[in-house]
Amino acid sequence: MKITGDWLTAGHVQKVLAMLSDGGHQALLVGGCVRNAALFQPVSDIDIATDAPPERVMALAKAAGLKPVPTGIEHGTVTVVADHVGHEVTTFRRDVETFGRHAIVAFSTDLREDAARRDFTMNALYARADGTVIDPLGEGLADLSARRLRFVGDPAQRITEDYLRILRFFRFTAWYGDPDQGMDAEGLAACAAFSAGIETLSRERIGHEMRKLLSAPDPAPAVAAMAASGVLAQVLPGAEARFLAPLVHLEGSVPADPLRRLACLGGEDPADRLRLSKAEARRLERLREALGDPGSDAELGYRYGAETGRDALLIRCASLGQEIPESSRNRVAFGAAQRFPVTAADLMPKHQGPALGAKLKELERRWIASGFSLSREALLGTDG
């Protein structure tokens, strides 16, 4: 099998590969770029594996006029910058000792040893500069073709080496698995058995994985499996997966949004547990407020804006198992376009301080109750 793509033939990629091969070493693309290219999906990060030790990679890069950056040299990784693009070049490795997200590694010249320490079989695929794919373990291509996500070797061992792999199991299943054949039973059982290990992970890493999972075209089956296995409760206590599938259905052409889907899951303090940014936390809180607002569709749009109002409407209908009437969408959009015609200056100096605020709220309530139809003059006329 061969992979193709503009990214593969790009000058900066070929320069780094040639730098290594001209120096007498193996130069193999690996992991996500190979997997995605084989699935005809976009490629972003370029990872390269080699039998050259990191110091040798540094020397070869300098000799070739490229810029080496020792980003993780103690673990064998050097970022080689070619044409202003970074490429992670990592020496073949084998694990000597693992504990959580940390490991003691030894450099290797054996490609199979390097493949055997990777997380999933479809990520243990390599490719030469001409696109020829190499499957050292003899399982990756078959699993990729079947859209079957499986751990390399013993799932329990892979997970205890790095508990983040539990979340990656669900995330990669959502993105690359075949929903019709379900999840790998052995891998799912291991994730359930070792789910308590998630507590050892940083909340930043958990949040990063959950954002990527919830950004998948349809994360509902994977999230449902997370809930059934007890993993979702470890990540986000109190969260429920039952309304996510209806929400994805209702979204239709609306772009996937991890925060909308997170709001649909509920749960205790997601902003803190997933280390959301301040902007994300504010948006999530705003959406939760909208979900609890008993106002009409038009009032929802007026108070929270077109996007948040639409998202709240989507989640509400998903939780009720209803389709969204076009009239509801239109009312939200109509409400979002309205602007209250009375300002504080219109009521001064007759009203001051708390009385001013109370009067503004009273007039706004009247205006909303009128279907936003009362004019400024009509509202001020009621302030006799």
From TrEMBL:
Species this chain originates from: Rhodobacter capsulatus (strain ATCC BAA-309 / NBRC 16581 / SB1003)
Cofactor needs: Mg(2+)
PANTHER family: CCA TRNA NUCLEOTIDYLTRANSFERASE 1, MITOCHONDRIAL
Top-level taxon: Bacteria
Residue stretches making up the tRNA nucleotidyltransferase/poly(A) polymerase RNA and SrmB- binding domain: 185-240
Any one GO biological process: tRNA processing
Signal peptide: none
Domain (Poly A polymerase head) ranges: 28-150
Keywords on record: Magnesium, Metal-binding, Nucleotide-binding, Nucleotidyltransferase, RNA-binding, Transferase, tRNA processing
Family per record: Belongs to the tRNA nucleotidyltransferase/poly(A) polymerase family.
Sample GO molecular function, one term: nucleotide binding
InterPro entries per UniProt: Bact_CCA-adding_enz_type3_sf, NT_sf, PolA_pol_head_dom, PolyA_RNA-bd
Record-listed E.C. numbers: 2.7.7.72
Protein name in the entry: CCA-adding enzyme
EC class name: transferase
PROSITE patterns the record matches: PROKAR_LIPOPROTEIN
Pfam families reported for this sequence: PolyA_pol, PolyA_pol_RNAbd
Lineage: Bacteria, Pseudomonadati, Pseudomonadota, Alphaproteobacteria, Rhodobacterales
